[in-house]
Amino acid sequence: MQVNIDINNIPRTIDLVRDDSNTSVIPDGYPVLSIIDQTQLPYAEAYLHLRDWREAIEAIKQLKVRGAPAIGIAGAASVALAAVEFCASNEGIARDEMNDPADYLEFMRQSAERIAHARPTAVNLMHMVDAAMEIVEEEAVSGSSPVVIADKLYEFTKQLIVEDEDANRKMGELGAALLEERSSVLTHCNAGSLATAFFGTALGVIYEAALQGKIEMVYADETRPLRQGARLTAFELAKAQVPVTLICDDMAATTMAQGRVDAVFVGADRIAANGDTANKVGTLGVAIAADRYGIPFYVVAPTSTIDVSAQNGEDIPIEERAASEVLDPPIPGVKVYNPAFDVTPADLITAIITEEGVVAPADIISVVM
Question: Are residues 62 and 86 in the same domain?
Answer without folding.
Answer: yes
